[in-house]
Task: inverse folding
C-alpha cells in the first residue's frame, strides 16, 4: 500500500498486528516506528498509543518507507514482526511567491525622448 502527502502536512497511520488467519493479535511490548529518510518524512509514535504514528513532511519531496516493528513472541524470546508503508511526499500548496529581478538593456522600442517643441500657435 502507498500513501501521498504534501510538503508541510501531517498525517497519522496505525498498525493492527494480525496472525496468519487475519485475526488481530497482541504483541510483546510497544511498537517502534521509523522513517527511511527523516529529511522527507518524520515518524513519531503517538503519545499514549504505540500502535499509532504521526507523520510530518518538513520540506523535501521524495519517497520514504515508514516501518512499524514489534516483538511477536509473547514469551521470553523475541520474534521480530514488521509492517511497512510507502509514502510519497509531493509539493504542497503555494504559500507565497518569489519574484526574480534581472536588470538588462531595454527590450523593444525605447520610450520617446523628451524634446522641447515650440508651443502651438493660436488662431
Result:
Amino acid at each position: 500500500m502507498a500513501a501521498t502527502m504534501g510538503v508541510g502536512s501531517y498525517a497519522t497511520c496505525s498498525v493492527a498486528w494480525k496472525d496468519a488467519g487475519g485475526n488481530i493479535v497482541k504483541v510483546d511490548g510497544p511498537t517502534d516506528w521509523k522513517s527511511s529518510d527523516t529529511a522527507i518524512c518524520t515518524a513519531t509514535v503517538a503519545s499514549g498509543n504505540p500502535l499509532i504514528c504521526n507523520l510530518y513532511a518538513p520540506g523535501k519531496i521524495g519517497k520514504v518507507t515508514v516501518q512499524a516493528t514489534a516483538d511477536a513472541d509473547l514469551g521470553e524470546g523475541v520474534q521480530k514482526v514488521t509492517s511497512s508503508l510507502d509514502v510519497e511526499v509531493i509539493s504542497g500548496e503555494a504559500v507565497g511567491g518569489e519574484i526574480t529581478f534581472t536588470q538588462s538593456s531595454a527590450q523593444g522600442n525605447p520610450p520617446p525622448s523628451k524634446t522641447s517643441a515650440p508651443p502651438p500657435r493660436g488662431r
Summary: The CA atoms of residues 92 and 98 lie 16 Å apart. The radius of gyration is 30 Å. The chain has no helices and seven strands. Strands lie at 2-6, 10-14, 28-35, 42-46, 49-56, 62-71, 80-90.
